[in-house]
Write a structure and sequence with these properties.
Strand content: 5-15%
Strand order of the largest sheet: 2-1-3-4-5
CATH class of the largest domain: Alpha Beta
Structural class: alpha/beta
Distance between the termini: 31 Å
Length: 224
């Protein structure tokens, strides 16, 4: 099992499920243990972050090769947040959208703005549902939505049309996961102040080109 995990054939949740089955240990206890382990991740040598930043300052990009399987990507990992200031990668952005009556063009325009800023875009309504309803049970829908949000580095919500439903829930999930929340709003448009309370940054824009420029200029966002 360990070799399959290291090769990427299994993710950590798969591995924990197998361990629980073979040892009769409670699965929730194993999850708590791996979360604690991720939170306590540290560099073997405390000088490494400083040295890597010096290397990056020369224009050289750095990637990390590790035998930690996929635990480095755990959203509970403090190590992941620290590593993002030391190596170059692509931020994965969860782009929220209306669930009922989604405007496909608006979704694609928001996603295109993120891609143009050098980010990897993800849209639940596009990438999971294919612009159609596939979840009959709301609990299944929000459980899957939470899982997908947890795989991303930040969440983008456009509040220009005054969202009151699914996007509010998704924003709350991201905030609860200590994920950066980027609130976009068309310049001069009033919006609900509750979004100010969870926003890492509010981005006013006149066009999607403006949004791309703002996203491109963002400082490195990390989750602590």
């Amino acid at each position: 099992m360990l070799q399959r995990w290291m090769r990427g054939e299994l993710v950590v949740d798969d591995a924990l499920a197998i361990i629980a089955e073979r040892t009769a240990l409670p699965l929730d206890a194993l999850h708590r243990y791996i979360e604690l382990s991720c939170k306590n991740m540290a560099f073997l040598d405390p000088a490494l972050p400083y040295l890597m930043q010096q290397i990056r300052a020369t224009g050289t990009q750095i990637i990390i090769a590790t035998d930690n399987m996929d635990t480095l990507d755990r959203r509970s990992s403090v190590g992941r947040s620290a590593y993002r200031v030391c190596y170059d990668g692509v931020m994965k952005l969860y782009v929220t959208s209306r669930y009922k009556g989604a405007d496909r063009k608006s979704v694609e325009d928001l996603c295109a703005a993120a891609r143009a800023a050098g980010m990897q875009d993800f849209s639940f309504i596009r990438d999971i549902e294919g612009y159609q309803k596939i979840f009959d049970n709301p609990q299944d829908l929000w459980r899957r939505s939470k899982e997908e949000i947890a795989t991303c580095d930040a969440l983008l919500v456009d509040v220009s049309d005054g969202p009151t439903g699914g996007r509010v829930i998704e924003t709350g999930i991201a905030f609860g996961l200590d994920m950066p929340v980027l609130v976009a709003v068309k310049r001069g448009t009033p919006y609900k102040e509750i979004f100010d309370g969870v926003a890492t940054m509010v981005i006013p824009y006149d066009s999607y080109q403006d949004l791309t420029a703002a996203l491109s200029a963002l400082p490195l966002l990390s989750r602590m």
